[in-house]
Amino acid sequence: MGNRDSRYDLIKPMLSEGTIVSFTDIFKYIPKTIIANDLGKKVDRFTVMMNQVEKFTLEELFRVAGLCGLTDEQMFALMYREYLKKREIVP
């Protein structure tokens, strides 16, 4: 992982303001290519993981949380909301 992208600093305040309410909201402010690269994932594989959030490992979630300056609990909450959103779409 190279230099940390400064856009990660936007996430924590936006979570506090209620602008970000689920995991994929993060990608409105940070391109998925940045996060995929920081996790060492190919973008195509990362896209699959975004569409099936249960495929993320705890280690990957902890790393994204750390990059965004969030606690593990905050990241779990975002991911859980995302999981519930996806479940509503697919019966």
Structural features, described:
- By secondary structure, the chain is mostly helical.
- It has one domain.
- 58% of the residues lie in helices and 0% in strands.
- It has five helices and no strands.
- The radius of gyration is 12 Å and the shape is globular.
- The protein starts with 10 loop residues before the first helix and ends with a helix.
- The mean pLDDT is 91.
Order of helices and strands: HHHHH
Q: Structural class of the helices, strands and pairings?
A: mainly alpha
Strand content: under 5%
Summed over residues and divided by their number, the pLDDT gives a mean of 91
> What does the overall shape look like?
globular
N- and C-termini, Cα separation: 38 Å
Radius of gyration: 12 Å
Question: What is the number of independent domains?
Answer: 1
**Low-confidence segments:** none
**Biggest β-sheet, characterized?**
none
Q: Give the number of helices.
A: 5
Helix content: 55-70%
| Strand tally | 0
Condensed summary:
With 91 residues, the chain is an all-alpha fold.
What labels would you give this structure?
single chain; 91 residues; mainly alpha; 0% strand; globular
